[in-house]
């Protein structure tokens, strides 16, 4: 095992009168418990196959991309440190170079990650041409030989990694929806590709204005990882709450009510938005539907380090991968 993990992660049925009234069964796939205090959730599932590949190819350095609030960035920093690799994080927004670090970036630096802040246009250009030899040449001239992970870590290996969680859900069939939040689409792509016939995958976008873009990303991952596309998934674009960095009052109210009822603190940027969407959508689902919501990660940042509270960029800008930059 490259990174410690307790698998399979727990699968728990939630008792909730609100959902029972709508004839919906909700189960939580507790991937947040894969490695409490360590690299957990979908970051574990996505990074491990890539770490194996990097080590097998003799790499000593990881390089990746993200916004200032990216969970992927600090997960890569921690994973590199745990595997004895060095790491570089290319961060969107050159204006952040001299700003006080938020929790996420401070954590990355604490794990030895070197941060390079680039302006938004250069960042976008680099990512759009990441697989071009010219881009790779520029990266290697600046940073030396390194294993490059795309924004959010979503490549074919990562999607294959998240596909593994479906093997931990026996007995799926036509009444099943497996639900997860969608940042860059790697997690949803892996789940959809691995589902048995009849079951469907349901993604909840956490980015604003990402309709079309995220669907294209998932299809692209399917083509590169499985050489085909799949018809068994869809993405809801109704519960991003105004953008990745935004946590509107209705969302935080939902999250604290959920926390109080079920004694479970939920990560706000992804998991709360997904569950909010599940609860709002439940009355419209066929009675008898069983929803398995993947708790893709634990709450990370201390409550005080939220936009507007801690140091950091303007809400709705930083941290949002995809077209909403
Ligand atoms: C990174 C992250 C996601 C996004 O996953 P994608 O594969 O990029 O769509 C979802 N949930 C949590 C908790 C995350 O940290």
From TrEMBL:
UniProt-annotated catalytic positions: 70 (nucleophile)
Q: What is this protein called?
A: 1-aminocyclopropane-1-carboxylate deaminase
- For the modification N6-(pyridoxal phosphate)lysine, which residues carry it? 43
Q: Which residues form a coiled coil?
A: none
| Source species, domain of life | Bacteria
A single GO BP term for this record reads:
alpha-amino acid metabolic process
- Cofactor(s) listed: pyridoxal 5'-phosphate
- Which family, according to UniProt? Belongs to the ACC deaminase/D-cysteine desulfhydrase family.
Q: Enumerate the InterPro entries for this protein.
A: ACCD_DCysDesulf, TrpB-like_PALP, TrpB-like_PALP_sf
Ranges where the Tryptophan synthase beta chain-like PALP domain occurs: 5-297
Q: By its UniProt entry, which PANTHER family does this protein fall under? A: 1-AMINOCYCLOPROPANE-1-CARBOXYLATE DEAMINASE-RELATED (PTHR43780:SF2)
């Amino acid at each position: 095992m490259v990174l410690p993990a307790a698998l399979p992660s727990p699968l728990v049925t939630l008792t909730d009168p609100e959902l029972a009234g709508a004839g919906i069964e909700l189960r939580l796939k507790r991937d947040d418990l894969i490695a409490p205090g360590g690299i957990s959730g979908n970051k574990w599932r996505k990074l491990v196959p890539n770490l194996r590949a990097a080590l097998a190819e003799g790499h000593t350095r990881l390089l990746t991309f993200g916004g200032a609030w990216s969970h992927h960035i600090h997960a890569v920093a921690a994973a590199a440190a745990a595997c004895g690799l060095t790491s570089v994080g290319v961060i969107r927004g050159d204006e952040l170079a001299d700003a006080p670090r938020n929790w996420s970036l401070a954590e990355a630096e604490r794990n030895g990650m070197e941060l390079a802040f680039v302006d938004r246009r250069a960042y976008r250009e680099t990512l759009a041409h990441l697989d071009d030899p010219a881009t790779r040449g520029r990266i290697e001239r600046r940073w030396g030989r390194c294993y490059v992970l795309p924004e959010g870590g979503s490549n074919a290996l990562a999607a294959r990694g998240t596909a593994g969680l479906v093997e931990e859900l026996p007995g799926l069939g036509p009444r099943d929806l497996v639900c997860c939040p969608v940042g860059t689409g790697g997690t949803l792509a892996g789940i959809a590709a691995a589902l048995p016939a009849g079951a469907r995958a349901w993604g909840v976008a956490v980015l604003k204005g990402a309709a079309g873009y995220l669907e294209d990303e998932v299809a692209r991952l399917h083509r590169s990882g499985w050489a085909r596309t799949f018809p068994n998934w869809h993405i809801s674009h109704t519960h991003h709450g105004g953008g990745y960095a935004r946590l509107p009052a209705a969302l935080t109210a939902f999250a604290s009510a959920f926390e109080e009822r079920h004694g479970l603190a939920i990560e706000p940027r992804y998991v709360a938005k997904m569950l909010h969407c599940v609860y709002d959508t439940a009355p419209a689902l066929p009675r008898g539907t069983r929803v398995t919501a993947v708790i893709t990660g634990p709450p990370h940042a201390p409550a005080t380090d939220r936009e507007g509270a801690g140091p950091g960029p303007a809400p709705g800008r930083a941290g949002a991968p995809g077209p909403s930059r």
